[in-house]
Amino acid sequence: CLCLLPSSPSRGNKRAHREMAGLRIASAVAAALALCVLSSIFDGADARKSRGGSKVRRHSAVVSRTPIPDTFYQQLQMLDTRRAQPTSFKCSNCPLEADGRPMAVRIMFFDVDPAVRNPKARAAAAALDREYSCDDPKLAVPECFVWQNWEEGWVGEFSNQFLLELNMNATALTRANFSKEVFEVYKGGSSYTRCVWEVRLGNVDLCVGDFWETEERRGIAPFASAMDSDVLKLGTLSLGSSEAIRLDSIFDPFTPDVWAVNLCMIFVSAMCIWLVETTTEMNSDYEDQLLPHKRLNWYQGMSKSLWMSLMGYVSGGATSSTTTWPGRFILLGFGWFVYISVSSYTANLASFMISQSSAIGLIDAYSDISDSGGNLCLLEAIEGMVKTPGVGKVAFDDYIPAIEGLYAGKCLGVQVGRNEWKTIVRGGKGSGSICVDPSDTKGHSTCADPNGKTKKIQISGCQCSDATVLDAADCPADCPDHRKYCSLLEINDEAFAFYMNFALPVSKRIQDYVSAWIISLRQEGVVQRLKGVYIDAVTPDVCGGGADMESDSQSLGIKAMAGTFVISGAFMMTGLIWHAVTLCTRKSREREPRGMFDVAAPKEVDGQLVETETTPEGKLAKPLSQKAPNDLFGGGGGDMGPPSFP
């Protein structure tokens, strides 16, 4: 605009000059304003570019839905939050909410000994002289709903360790806090599966207990990494001691394949000794006892060698004699085989002889259930896993109702976890309840009707009405269930092989954090240490030998005896190779004359031993049985006088 204006007005016109000056000033102001506007536009674009970045970055900011801070305090708080984001899911004081506060979660604890325990709640109930139960809303004390109090048990202490590290804003729940909604979506009786549904519905973030990770539950809600594995045992009811006489019981210490290999080893060793010693003139084992100096033929020698090997095996030592080093190596291998085999048989036979007087059960193997068309008592959680044809299934919601179903005659066998078998059955510890209401025949721990009649089963902790009687076993009228499960018999059967993982149901928002800590603690051996503290160290076998003794005796298999066979075979092979080398060397060596004979050993001709004698007519083979005594010693007559020497 300034360039379009004339440089100067005409001199004669002063008025026009003043107007021109004013116009120039106005044009300069307008130009300055225009420059300011353009500068603001470019500066705003640069600021937006530096603050928002590329389109991809602006899109990610929208997806993250991070609130834009309005105040300087909020900006600092958000900066601290971003700095605190962990680089690994195994972190402390995490996870966090969007505003940086600890994440609020709800945790349901299962009060099941020895998995999870709350000692402070028990003490509070005892102080109030109230029956302890955190699962009953009428009996629960406030200490039941403090998550730090659930600090005992192999699962409770294990979970307490990583919960303290995560430091979340946790609210403790128990089975008394099941929602009405979960009873509408799940009609089963398992409280464990019900808690998994609570996670699915978003009412619970973590269930703490000895949960099995089954296919059904895995489809309902996520699970954290496995803590440990469980081996399911098959139990049956004992019928008493067996009075039957088994003539074949002496063969029980070894499996049939081991007996077969033993016979093969006896035969092979006998043949090896015969091959080596039958060609030795100094060994009298293979001479005919009725005809002196007559060697046994091949089948007689093999039969005698086999007989001596059998006698050596049953007597626990070698009965054959040997005069050569190859034969000594073969006897060494045979002696090693006899020593280990006889020692193992004797030790295992003693165990079998003791166990034969122990109890017998309703079944001897898992297949007996299907053969007789019987039922198997088991928990609802694994009902879908058992698909054996001919085996009926009776499902229960807890172990004690399942075992009581066996006693009630509903099934021939019962499935029990390894930990529960050690604590409830063999340890005689625990208690529970079963529904005995006539209108409810399922026999679960609770009745379908909340007002239904239940019966308490007290395996331990029962007290006699007479205060002077301290042992509950001395008052069966007051404590009829005291250690009653000692009459259960464990059935070891490879056909019944079920393994489960112990894992915790967890919501997706904390699944990675819980799994990371579980993996770390398990690698450090925390699980096994806690199981040793809460199960092995405090749960002795109160049943003694009893019905479970039979399961401790097992026949030795081929794998257990493989080392014996290999070592014995190596010694025998060494002896055979040595003997073969000796024969080859002997054939190539020239024999030196010995006195009147030119050979060192007699030979067998037509069943008689002969020696080659040098005579003036030449070499003549004359049987030893035809030689006169003076002929043998160089005499000239039949008298037995001293021999004459030239």
Q: Concise description?
A:
This protein is of the alpha/beta class. The chain is built from 18 helices and 15 strands.
Q: Could you characterize what this model shows?
A:
This protein is α/β, with parallel strands linked by helices. It has 18 helices and 15 strands. The strands form four sheets. Strands 4, 5, 6, 7, 8, 11 and 12 form a seven-stranded mixed β-sheet that branches. The longest helix has 39 residues, at 14-52.
List keywords for this structure.
15 strands, 7-stranded mixed β-sheet, 646 residues, 18 helices, single chain, disordered N terminus, alpha/beta, flat
| Low-confidence spans | 1-12, 47-69, 546-552, 594-601, 603-609, 616-641
- What's the tally of helices? 18
**What is the average per-residue confidence, as pLDDT, rounded to a whole number?**
78
The share of residues in helices is 40-55%
Task: Indicate the radius of gyration in whole angstroms.
Answer: 47 Å
The coarse silhouette is flat
What portion of the residues fall into strands of 2 or more residues?
Answer: 5-15%
Major beta sheet, specifics? 7 strands, mixed
Structural class: alpha/beta
Distance between the termini: 162 Å
Number of DSSP E strands: 15
Topology:
Layout lengths: L13 H39 L2 H10 L7 H12 L20 E6 L9 H9 L26 H13 L2 E5 L6 H6 L5 H11 L4 E3 L6 H4 L9 E14 L14 H22 L20 H18 L9 H31 L3 E3 L5 H5 L3 E5 L12 E5 L2 H9 L5 E5 H8 L5 E5 L18 E5 L29 E4 L7 E4 L5 H16 L2 H11 L21 H31 L14 E3 L2 E8 L2 E6 L5 H5 L13
Parallel strand pairs: 1-2, 1-3, 6-7, 6-8
Antiparallel strand pairs: 4-5, 4-8, 4-11, 4-12, 9-10, 13-14, 14-15
